Isochorismatase family protein (Umezawaea endophytica), 183 residues
Amino acid sequence: MPVTALDPRTALVVVDLQKGVVSLPTAHPADQVVRNAGALADAFRSRGLPVVLVTAHGTAPGRTEQNFPRREMPADWADLVPELNQRPGDHTVVKRTWGAFTGTDLDAYLRGEGVTQVVVVGIATTAGVESTARHAQENGYHVTLAVDAMTDLSAEAHENSVTRIFPRLGETGTTEEVIALLP
């Protein structure tokens, strides 16, 4: 279902648009994803709506078949990309799992701000974005996903999330469509 409406208190949640993640080989150009996310952040801020900037600092413990190699990361790996134009009023979340809710203050922050809907964007579609969207939906938020402000390491995996998973979690649309619906 295409995006139809945004609640008056909608927050933007930008997942893992940090230097280390953006530098990975992605299915769609990361620079366009970053530009679209930046446009959304600017639009939300100009309307006094919450912007949440999420960064990954490590991973959850546990064995998986596709663990990324555990290695020393460059000092700026977790720094947000400058194109997001981080502002003092933005809420930052540091996570150590795929999703931005687990083990963080995200839910408490959103509820404290009176948020009833979230727009989720970032990298990677099938990990941080999808996990965050799933948890938001489970917590009772309306969920919108700006699909041109996200990408994955795999085009096939990205397409699966966008066409099969996201319509079950909320509504999807483009950056332009989301901005046009902002209150």
